[in-house]
Write a structure and sequence with these properties.
The chain has 152 residues and is an alpha+beta fold. It contains 5 helices and 6 strands, in the order E-E-E-E-E-H-H-E-H-H-H.
Length: 152
């Protein structure tokens, strides 16, 4: 494991413990070169899932891409990191339980939007605006109107 601070590959494990309801192992590591500590997580590797994008191209599922989209949506919103990680874990469990090797990107986007709608309405609208490619202010207004109707 490379140190994220100095890029040395000489690190040691200081502490290990179960994490994410026994679905991962959390490891505290220390860099021998610079002495800084950092945390890594080990997860069970499941069968590789391919994401079918809107243009019908395929690419391997990447947790980091889903996380980046969520983080952009919740930027400066009162959403805890733990809630984001739980959402990503739930997403991966959902996708795995589908039992398909190819997952449409729409399945991932709809799952995230559904969870964000309950978690933070502003983050939901932000995510939806990118995911659904809102073209103008009217589309924003329509989505907000729908959101307000479901919340009343």
């Amino acid at each position: 494991m490379r140190c994220p601070f100095c890029n040395s590959d000489d690190t040691k494990v200081v502490d290990s413990r179960p994490a994410d309801e026994q679905n991962a192992i959390r490891r505290r590591r220390e860099c021998i070169a610079c002495g800084k500590r950092f945390t890594t997580y080990e997860r069970l590797e499941t069968f590789p899932m391919m994401v079918v994008k809107k243009d019908e191209s395929r690419e391997p599922y990447d947790r980091g891409k889903a996380e980046k989209g969520i983080l952009l949506a919740v930027h400066k919103r009162p959403v805890a990191t733990e809630e984001i990680q739980k959402m990503l874990d739930d997403l991966e469990n959902y996708l795995f339980n589908l039992g398909q090797k190819e997952i449409p990107v729409s399945e991932i986007g709809e799952f995230i939007m559904h969870r964000l709608k309950d978690l933070d309405p502003v983050a939901y609208v932000r995510f939806a605006s990118v995911y659904r490619e809102f073209k103008d202010v009217d589309t924003f207004a329509d989505e907000i109107t729908k959101l307000l109707k479901t919340r009343s």
